[in-house]
Write a structure and sequence with these properties.
GO terms for molecular function: hydrolase activity; RNA endonuclease activity. 59% of the residues lie in helices and 13% in strands. It is of the alpha+beta class. The chain has 3 domains: 105 residues, Ribosomal Protein S5, domain 2; 34 residues; 140 residues, Up-down Bundle (Butyryl-CoA Dehydrogenase, subunit A, domain 3), CATH 1.20.140.
C-alpha cells in the first residue's frame, strides 16, 4: 500500500528493569536519511536498530529518538565516576570560596552529566537489546499506521485530480479534429483572398501539399494517446502502492511533456485554457507525490 514519507510514531513501555520510550518523526526526502538520538549507553546497538528500521522504510528523512530510564535492577551495570564528580564539586566549592560565596551542591544535576556514568558492559546485554528492538518495532508500526492514513488522503486527492484531467483530455480529443478542419478552411480562404488580389488561381496540387504539412504540425493524436496511457498508469500506481512515489513522479513528468506539446501544436483559445488548467492540476499532483514513499 502507498505510504506517506511524513509521519510520527511513538511507543512507551515500562518493564522490569527499565522504561523505554521511542519516538519516530519523518519528512520527505529523495533517499533514506536516518538521524539517531540514542543514550550513550546503547549506542553500540545502533547497527541492530538500523537494520530493523530498514524493514519499515525505503525513503524519507527520519529522526529516531530513545529515552531510557533504568531502575534499581540495573544498578549492577551502571557505575559512577566518583573521582571525576568529586573533582567537579571541589573545584566549584573553591571557586565560590575565592569570591566569598557559599556553594551548596545540587547532586541531582549530576544525573545529567553523562560522562560521569559508565555503562560499557551493556553492549553485550542481549536481553536489553531484544527488548529495545521490540520497542522500536512497535514505534515503527505506529509510525507506519500514521503514514498509511496520510497516504490514503493524498491518494484520494490525486485520484480526484486524475479524473478531472481525464475529462479535460476527452474534450481535447473531441475538439482537436474540429480545430484542424477550421485551420484548413481558414488557410484555404486566406490563400484564395491573396491569389484573388493578384488575379491568380489556386493550384489545388500545391494547396494539398501545404495542407499536408499543416496537418502534420497540427496532429496531436500520438501525444493524446500517450497522455491517456500515462493517466491510466497513474491510476495503476496509486492502487499498486509499494514504493510507487518515484514512478508516480516520473509519470507526472511525462504527462507534462505531452500536454505541453499539445498546447504548442493546437493554437486554440478553448484548448489553451484546458491545457493551462491541466498543467495546474499536474503540478498539484506532483506536490502531493513528493510526500509519497
Amino acid at each position: 500500500m502507498l505510504k506517506s514519507m511524513t509521519g510520527f510514531g511513538r511507543y512507551s513501555q515500562e518493564e522490569e528493569k527499565c522504561v523505554q520510550t521511542w519516538e519516530v518523526r519523518s519528512v520527505n526526502s529523495r533517499y533514506l536519511d536516518i538521524k539517531w538520538r540514542l543514550p550513550q549507553c546503547v549506542r553500540s546497538f545502533e547497527p541492530i536498530f538500523e537494520k530493523t528500521l530498514r524493514r519499515f522504510a525505503q525513503r524519507g528523512r527520519l529522526e529516531v529518538s530513545l529515552s531510557l530510564q533504568f531502575n534499581n535492577n540495573y544498578s549492577d551495570v551502571l557505575t559512577f565516576n566518583d573521582n571525576a564528580a568529586s573533582s567537579i564539586l571541589d573545584r566549584l566549592t573553591l571557586f565560590a570560596k575565592e569570591r566569598g560565596h557559599i556553594y551548596t551542591p545540587d547532586y541531582n544535576r549530576l544525573l545529567g552529566l553523562s560522562h560521569l556514568w559508565e555503562t560499557d558492559n551493556l553492549s553485550n546485554n542481549e536481553e536489553l537489546s531484544d527488548n529495545l528492538v521490540q520497542g522500536l518495532e512497535a514505534a515503527l508500526t505506529d509510525w507506519n499506521d500514521a503514514r498509511l492514513s496520510e497516504a490514503k488522503t493524498l491518494s484520494s486527492d490525486i485520484l480526484s485530480r486524475i479524473i478531472r484531467m481525464e475529462e479535460w483530455l476527452d474534450l481535447i480529443i473531441e475538439r482537436a479534429p474540429e480545430i484542424k478542419e477550421e485551420r484548413f478552411s481558414a488557410v484555404k480562404e486566406r490563400i484564395g483572398e491573396i491569389l484573388a488580389n493578384h488575379q491568380q488561381e489556386l493550384d489545388e496540387g500545391r494547396f494539398l501539399q501545404e495542407i499536408t504539412l499543416l496537418a502534420d504540425k497540427l496532429d496531436v493524436s500520438e501525444e493524446l494517446t500517450r497522455l491517456s496511457s500515462h493517466l491510466e498508469r497513474l491510476r495503476e500506481l496509486l492502487s499498486l502502492g509499494n514504493d510507487a512515489g518515484r514512478r508516480l513522479d516520473f509519470t507526472m513528468q511525462e504527462c507534462f511533456r505531452e500536454i505541453n506539446t499539445c498546447g504548442n501544436k493546437i493554437q486554440d483559445v478553448q484548448i489553451s485554457r484546458i491545457v493551462v488548467d491541466f498543467k495546474n492540476e499536474l503540478e498539484k499532483c506532483r506536490e502531493q507525490v513528493q510526500n509519497l514513499e
